[in-house]
Design a protein that fits this description.
The structure is a homodimer.
Chain A lengths: L1 E2 L2 H13 L4 E6 L5 H13 L2 E6 L19 H11 L3 E3 L3 H5 L12 E3 L2 H4 L3 H4 L3 H16 L3 E5 L3 H13 L5 E5 L19 H6 L2 H14 L5 H6 L9 E10 L13 E9 L2 E8 L3
Parallel strand pairs in A: 1-4, 2-3, 2-6, 3-4, 6-7
Antiparallel strand pairs in A: 8-9, 9-10
């Protein structure tokens, strides 16, 4: 069932709740791929009813980011959701979510602001305001749908950590379920932004998973010094790769480490053909 | 029933909800007076079950404000709530609400941040971060109790406006009920901070309601120019009065007016004996 309005979603979900159904929410920006489908399958496996939100959220994009050209494929998304037995696709307009007649900013809109410590690092360093926009829309979706469970991919590792922190800090009555990264056979992590890449670019993009796999192998062989682990990456890079960051931090708190351990996560962001790609790997698994 | 833990409150309220009861929340910082009791009576009149939270919220006090000396009168509060038939008094510790082992700041804690436009005016000008702290704790209480209705006094006019804005912006599934100011026979608006005043100070504090009543009378007589209305106040002030602000703004949006109308509200903050007092009046009623 495709719904565009907040009131309609609330009405259907409230009816489900009175009938005792457990409700799952999979928040997406559409352009669904197998990564999203893995979240939906997980949701279907533990919930009676599943809502997929399909909304390209304007307030999580910076002024020089790809909001306008971000892929929008609602018809395909609907078919995929149908095949997975999704109960509601919630595809609101920006106006439905944020009202109209105002420039969206923290001058006119209430924001949820995750802690600086979690934001001023990794992706947050260059994507100013990004995680405020993410937390704000996610809390809105939680309040609209009031799910029992919500599903997020480990691909956006910093995002999941920040959302878990928000849920804890604000006592949000939703359980967050984190699902593993889905990759192509080549190793490339699935992302809606992969659509921007040429065939050549997709090959160059394999560098992210190669660097991370190599760091993990080195860690398993006994190298724990974070600087030494990070240095193993540079031989993989060519002039096709514009690295934004490569960090090894605590997988729950994002705290920097000098020595990696089984709670560490290695994360990287690299631009290929000017497309910003991210990937990460748990060292302890 | 006095409860200190979040889990206990959730358990009782969830049981109520499955039984179809409508739940009301009256958020307070304790030190209950007839103003609070009017909120509780209103809640009792439209809800099946009423929760009063009694928590002096550290994150809404600035470093030079009265957090430590703010009156704490839980035993009296409990008696008053009992007389009104309150079902739960929720009196958590700061540790229960915010965890321990961390300095409370936006470096370590997720905050709800109301729009700058609503915050950088009136009380927010001098109470930096105050409304972030208020919205954060109120949203936490909403998420813990999950009430159908929540009750706030018009006394803290800017607070109610900001909370209504938060509820709208974040799609919070709670209906906000605003209740009128309760005053002593003298005209003094009830406030927990009145306890700080001497008998002499309480007399000097009547200036707030006098100024506001006079502005309303002048408006009813046909004076609409905001500057002219504000100027009528100065003859009431003596060296016992340290005025922080006197403003006439839109009662819903806080927008400045040059000409008052029936949607206007006059608000003032004045220090008497170094006690910061606030009051306000609707011009249109």
């Amino acid at each position: 069932m495709l719904l565009h309005s907040i009131d309609e979603v609330r009405e259907v979900v409230q009816k489900w709740k009175t009938e005792g159904y457990k409700v799952g929410l999979v928040p997406t920006m559409g352009a669904l791929h197998d990564g999203h489908l893995s979240l939906i399958k997980k949701a279907k496996s533990i919930c009676d009813k599943v809502v997929v939100s399909d909304f390209v959220n304007p307030i999580q994009f910076g002024p020089n980011e790809d909001f306008d050209k971000y892929p929008r494929t609602l018809d395909t998304d609907m078919k995929l959701c149908d095949e997975e037995g999704v109960d509601i696709i919630f595809a609101p307009t920006p106006k439905e979510m944020y009202g109209e007649g105002q420039r969206l900013s923290n001058n006119t809109l209430t924001y949820v602001c995750p802690p600086f410590f979690y934001v001023n690092t990794l992706c947050g360093k260059t994507r100013i305001g990004h995680f405020d926009g993410v937390c704000t829309v996610v809390l809105k979706l939680f309040n609209i749908v009031q799910p029992d469970y919500a599903f997020f991919g480990q691909k956006d590792a910093q995002q999941v950590i920040i959302i878990k922190k928000m849920v804890k800090d604000l006592n949000v009555p939703v359980e967050i379920i984190q699902c593993p990264i889905v990759r192509e056979a080549s190793g490339l992590a699935l992302s809606s932004r992969n659509k921007y890449l040429s065939e050549e670019g997709k090959k160059d993009a394999l560098v992210l998973s190669k660097i991370l796999n190599n760091i993990k192998e080195c860690y398993k062989k006994g190298i724990v010094d974070v600087n030494a682990l990070k240095e193993t990456a540079y031989s993989f890079l060519t002039n096709k790769h514009d690295m934004e960051y490569l960090e090894i931090v605590d997988k729950d708190t994002l705290e920097n480490k000098t020595a990696a351990d089984d709670n560490s996560i290695a994360l990287t962001a690299i631009r290929v053909e000017n497309v910003r790609l991210i990937d990460n790997i748990y060292l302890g698994e």
